[in-house]
Amino acid sequence: MSRQVLQLEPESELHFQGPFNDVVTSHLKLSNPTDRRICFKVKTTAPKRYCVRPNSGILEPRQSVQVAVMLQPFEYDPTEKNKHKFMVQTMFAPDGDVNQETVWRDANPENLMDSKLRCVFEMPTDNAPQNNLDVSTSHGDDKMTVPKTVTESAPKSPKQAGNQEAELKKMSEENKRLRDEVSHLRLENSNLKEEGLRQRMMRNTAPVEETVSAQSAAEVTGARQGTQQATKKVPAGGTSPLVLTVFAAAMLIIGVLVGKWLF
């Protein structure tokens, strides 16, 4: 690792003045005192908490650049130890056109130079000015317009509260729609189960009805056959046993009456 040739202002600490319910900006000046072009890149240990513009580039000989380091809003806890750090990594740019992505990817680690800075959070006293943007007004054209971002811990403005209520209402309507769809799907599922049960019962009932019909047909056929057999046992034109019995009884009575009359 080579010695850093860029000049940094400040050299070792980036100070951020609270309160921290809005974007707080600290500036870092990079100067190239050499006669060669220098590639630079700014890194941080907490990339989600900071926005850096520009975060990389090329410094021409004897020129400087102002880097804006923007701390995003958060809920400040004075008891929490701040461990955020920044590193400015540099190397001499090759001759000709430079593709920074390729240059950094193919760079020899021995040719890299770096400087580290730690972040310091300062909460003002009650009598101190509360405007966090005063620090950037003295930089003239280098001042940057920073879009304000709001986290959950920041105080909510009426407009933001209204947007949140609209979002909650939208989520509630979406939840109701999903519940209605679930109820509809459950009803369809119940109907499908009933239809399946009804079809199974119809399939099971059909063989039983066919069996009963077959048995009934067999019984009718058997009765007809029995009648035909009984009819065949009596000779055609013959007298049935009942008629013969009545005739015999009548002849007996007539015989008794004739006997009494003669004797």
From TrEMBL:
It is a single-pass type IV membrane protein. Residues 128-138, 213-231 have a biased composition (Polar residues). GO terms for biological process: endoplasmic reticulum membrane organization; endoplasmic reticulum-plasma membrane tethering. It is found in: Membrane. One of its GO terms (cellular component) is endoplasmic reticulum membrane. GO terms for molecular function: FFAT motif binding. Residues 128-174, 213-235 are annotated as: Disordered. The chain crosses the membrane at residues 242-262. Keywords: Coiled coil, Membrane, Transmembrane, Transmembrane helix. Belongs to the VAMP-associated protein (VAP) (TC 9.B.17) family. This is VAMP-associated protein involved in inositol metabolism. It comes from Ornithodoros erraticus (European soft tick).
